[in-house]
Amino acid sequence: MKFTTPAGTNPIDQGKIVGKPTPRIDGPLKTSGGARYAYEHNEAVKNPAYGYVVGSAIAKGRISAIDLRDAKAAPGVLAIITADNAGKLTKGSFNTAMLLGGPEIEHYHQAVAVVVAETFEQARAAAALVRVDYAREKGAYDLAASVDSAVKAGGNNAKVGDFDGAFAAAPVQFDQRYTTPDHAHAMMEPHASIAAWDGDKLQIWTANQMIAWGRGDVAKTLGIPKENVRLISPFIGGGFGGKLFVRADAILAALGAKAAGRPVKVALPRPLMFNNTTHRPATIQRIRIGAGRDGKISAIAHEEWCGDLPGGGGENSVAQTRLLYAGANRLIGQKLAVLNLPEANAMRAPGEAPGMMALEIAMDELAEKLGIDPIELRVINDTQVDPEKPERPFSQRRLIECMRTGADKFGWAKRNPKPGQVRDGRWLVGIGMAAAFRNNINMKSAARVRLDGSGIVTVETDMTDIGTGTYTIVAQTAAEMMGVPLDKVKVKLGDSSFPVSAGSGGQWGANSATAGVYAACVKLREAVAQKLGFNSDDAVFAGGKVRAGKRSVPLADAAKAGEIVAEDVMEYGDLGRKFQQSTFGAHFVEVGVDIATAEIRIRRMLAVCAAGRILNPVSARSQVIGAMTMGAGAALMEELVVDKRFGFFVNHDLAGYEVPVHADIPHQEVIFLEETDPTTSPMKAKGVGELGICGVGAAVANAIHNATGVRVRDYPVTLDKLLEGMPEFA
Amino acid sequence: MHGPGEFELSRRGILVGGAASVAMTAAPPIAEAQEAASAGAGAPVLARVTLKVNGKPHTLELDTRTTLLDALREHLQFTGTKKGCDHGQCGACTVIVDGRRINSCLSLAVMHEGDSVTTIEGLGTAEKLHPMQAAFVKHDGYQCGYCTPGQICSAVAVLDEIRAGIPSHVTGDVAGKPAMSAEEIRERMSGNICRCGAYSNIVEAISEVAARRKA
Amino acid sequence: MKAFTYERAGSPAEAAAIVGRTQGARFIAGGTNLLDLMKLQIETPTHLVDVNHLGLDRIEATPEGGLRIGALVRNTDLAADKRVRKDYALLSRALVAGASGQLRNKATTAGNLLQRTRCPYFYDTNQPCNKRKPGSGCAAIGGINRSMAVIGASDACIATHPSDMAIAMRALDAVVETVRADGATRAIPIAEFHTLPGDTPNVENTLAAGELITAVTLPKPIGGTHIYHKVRDRASYAFALVSVGAILQKDGSGRVAFGGVAHKPWRVEAAEAALAQGAKAATALAFAGAKPTEQNKFKLVLAERTLAAAIAEARA
């Protein structure tokens, strides 16, 4: 099915199941320990061996020698794979560095060997006996020091009008720099895989968000036909972008299994993950805004400096500034330097997440400078069209309503705009807000739907559920389309033998994957109608029956003679180009800052979101509160700290890389505006999983400023950056 | 003393920068690695241990290095207990041993001879959920599900700890009785990290069970 | 983790004797720190002596009116003990400020005192570290050291001691009781227990090889307001940037020990005389000669302000 014109009324609009708050259908499995993650397919893989990965001790240079004698002689060792004996490996299309390094080393903790042994304990012990001699080379590890070497890169370099002239002429000029540090996905399930060969066929149970990409890159890396690779990933213990791509666990498990002649399990040890896998890169951002005294922006510029390994990409933190606020004269640019740190790549809302952290502090600062309420400043500069291409409207844009609704609900009117004025016991209290913005993306997505003689509808797609609630929204979609209750639908995900879906990333999963299921269901409805002798246009699917006129037949009857199978793919025309499809929201945060210690604690959080049809308010709300939590972490504590001498992230475990814990997060509220967007798909939905992280960090930082009067522009906002500006306390 | 990016090579310094040649082993200092090799790299030591898991005794012959977590996951197929960090930094491996919650990753199986271990599988099944499991489903107190078994085992034990009067960091008067409050639950659950960020919902789930049991 | 043999000792003296005579032997109690380090081969024992079943898990009143805390009393049980909560609230508060509920259920009184540093370079075996590998260098000096010591450090090591409990023990004048490999027992005042790094940062306390902690005793209660303020970025389950353990009396006198600032719990008795004059005076004396780095100099300001908060709280 090709989606080329805005959707009219369709079965999804019935809203009997889609859009209803629905507990996750995989909930009982997940809460009882029955959901099987990558490393846990013990019944499918008997007698596995265990692989343990050895990471490089240097960031850049070469391996001059590897001595495997002691490791090979260690008890239980079955095989050791290094670049010397792995055979020819080709870098995957989605990888920037080789997943098995050597002799060239591209980053710290790049895998240089995997030791396979009978037991996990033996593999780990033997891995410690692998002796590697390195010739260390000079690398670049300091982004700030590399700014001058950065070159224009990425897809966000744009000029509209005359920024320099308009900025110079503006009555109010604002010019600030902001920094965001490197961030780790730090998902709870480590990257893990079990690989098993059957002749030249390779099966990998793995933790991967994008099954088709993964299948392709396993095949490419190992130099085998894609058809010989099967990836299985029914449950994924969090990804956030960190599992978009094939990583060392999958490749080394496959190589280890080949060498050992039996299935091999590999999980990346937690202390290895931070430098071995990908991360969100640090940014330096400069924002300049020229405005009138009335707050109207006449000139806006947002520039980014970022770093990555050779061949990598930047963070695109300037992307939202092309679309969020009006202004006739615009300058957007990004520059990329070569850094020999681990591979930079996508993490939840790449671009907007760190971009909004900067832009939305800038708007708060500008509002303060102008003496205009921060919400009003954003209202004044709202635009209903793409500011670079005014002929191109937003499909929906209810940013103002989000902000107004949130202001009412949160008690914004009670906020004292003068910082440092509100005290509650030992706490200085402040309130801050920020806009939320993230683009919607549609991806081609396919599904197969089966109807059996007992009336059970089974959906098969290689789509993944990384905690997003895919199982449930796919089931809701199929149930709505086929007119059956939710418990008559079975959903099978994350298997490369199923039709290729959108996968999970870029908040495109929910709308795209369910649209693919919609397409397959339309085909199944046609096949059922035909089988039962209905004109498919007239047939109504409801209550487990198919009905037209006075005739009503149980749906199951269509499959009495045998299962009916339908498969289709949803593809997209140019609606995404004709209309700017984005999601909007507003974040409100109240913080307390300890008057003595400057410790920061969040007291209240609210997000108001406008993101098209909300397919399942339960899981959508969870996506938003989860993103708010991750954004709170980015605001207050998360930072991969770079040792600029040795070129690695020093705090490479979960004690050193602090992410929020229960005690950091208060009760969170989410409001979804009622909305459908007919330009996005027949589902009329948009992404929401990343919207929640976009802007929340700035709302926290703005609240801290409101509480203390201290403006911190270098994330994370930690107490040491506040102390100097805090009131005397003795 | 040391300029940024440059170290002198001395007993205390490290050579950095330039095309220096350095020798390193993956984990231990070279001397230790070589010593280990000469000592036969330590042939595994096996030990017999009997664990009572979810009410049933299991006798295993295990490498002494096997953690309780790996004994459960790799030897007894109780894969509901998760390995998130293997270093006591995340709480995904939380199980209840003789009535107390612990990180099973930081405990050797051989040290649990005769102990009663309750895992997520022992609390309830998908068909017959424990009230805490059901409350997590109702309040959507999870997303990816990987930290969830640890959160639930912890939650069950937390309510017992509050009832037993064990103080926490947020207990106003440590000599008094801690309250069954959201603040107490948050502090006590802080050893269970949820990167999906389901905290707000998890606290609601636990609070509901707490209120129900109080009634 | 290297292979090791394992046994359960029959008595404290036997445990000490075994560890004293067996090369590569170590005691294991809660295991929450030792196993963590063994997995990374920072600790590489070849024999483990399990001291969990030796009856060292009782808390008893002493004839002097104090408490004798068995070495194996779990952190949770110590924090929850009625006498501790009433008379040594500082200890209870420090304990519950540390780690997580799960870890406190396993971690022991002796093990807590023996915790090793959380310096990230100590934890990364690719990096030089004089504590882990004497003579290899200190990567934290000139590296990432926001969390490191501001006082009492040396050219060889700027690591901190991570314990919260030990801060309280130091303020409470605890005494560490041990049994040695030869069966002899001794009592070590807590002030003499932990050491500064000097040229031998691998040495962290004054225990002899094979010497087993059997108990920690507390003198009789001294009253006062007990305050433990632990300052950290994350609200829980994090090590202290700075912590202040204080016992403050109505007359303005008191005791104070600081955590997160040195290789050992930092208490300067002479500085306590200045407590009545306020936090500024007391911290100026307590941190005289401090040598912070650019990254951690905030700790000095923080220590003063945190102590000021404690004094204000005690007065309120």
TrEMBL record, chain A:
Residues 32-138 form the Aldehyde oxidase/xanthine dehydrogenase a/b hammerhead domain. SMART domains: Ald_Xan_dh_C (SM01008). It comes from the Bacteria. One of its GO terms (molecular function) is xanthine dehydrogenase activity. Keywords: Oxidoreductase. Residues 1-25 are annotated as: Disordered. It is an enzyme of class 1 (oxidoreductase). Gene3D superfamilies: Aldehyde oxidase/xanthine dehydrogenase, a/b hammerhead, Aldehyde oxidase/xanthine dehydrogenase, molybdopterin binding domain. Residues 1-12 have a biased composition (Polar residues). PANTHER family: ALDEHYDE OXIDOREDUCTASE MOLYBDENUM-BINDING SUBUNIT PAOC, XANTHINE DEHYDROGENASE. This is Xanthine dehydrogenase YagR molybdenum-binding subunit. It comes from Sphingomonas kyeonggiensis. The lineage of its organism: Bacteria, Pseudomonadati, Pseudomonadota, Alphaproteobacteria, Sphingomonadales.
UniProtKB/TrEMBL annotation, chain B:
It catalyses: an aldehyde + A + H2O = a carboxylate + AH2 + H(+). The keyword Signal applies. GO terms for cellular component: periplasmic space. Its EC number is 1.2.99.6. It is found in: Periplasm. It is an enzyme of class 1 (oxidoreductase). One of its GO terms (molecular function) is metal ion binding. Keywords: 2Fe-2S, Iron, Iron-sulfur, Metal-binding, Oxidoreductase, Periplasm, Signal. Residues 47-123 form the 2Fe-2S ferredoxin-type domain. It comes from the Bacteria. Pfam families: Fer2, Fer2_2. Heterotrimer composed of PaoA, PaoB and PaoC. Oxidizes aldehydes to the corresponding carboxylic acids with a preference for aromatic aldehydes. It might play a role in the detoxification of aldehydes to avoid cell damage. This is Aldehyde oxidoreductase iron-sulfur-binding subunit PaoA. The lineage of its organism: Bacteria, Pseudomonadati, Pseudomonadota, Alphaproteobacteria, Sphingomonadales.
UniProtKB/TrEMBL annotation, chain C:
PANTHER family: ALDEHYDE OXIDOREDUCTASE FAD-BINDING SUBUNIT PAOB (PTHR42659:SF5), XANTHINE DEHYDROGENASE SUBUNIT C-RELATED (PTHR42659). It comes from Sphingomonas kyeonggiensis. It is an enzyme of class 1 (oxidoreductase). Transmembrane segments: none annotated. The keyword Flavoprotein applies. Keywords: FAD, Flavoprotein, Oxidoreductase. Its EC number is 1.17.1.4. PROSITE patterns: FAD_PCMH. One of its GO terms (molecular function) is FAD binding. InterPro entries: CO_DH_flav_C, CO_DH_flav_C_dom_sf, Diverse_Substr_Oxidored, FAD-bd_PCMH, FAD-bd_PCMH-like_sf, FAD-bd_PCMH_sub1, FAD-bd_PCMH_sub2, Mopterin_DH_FAD-bd. This is Xanthine dehydrogenase YagS FAD-binding subunit. Pfam families: FAD_binding_5 (PF00941). Residues 1-223 form the FAD-binding PCMH-type domain.
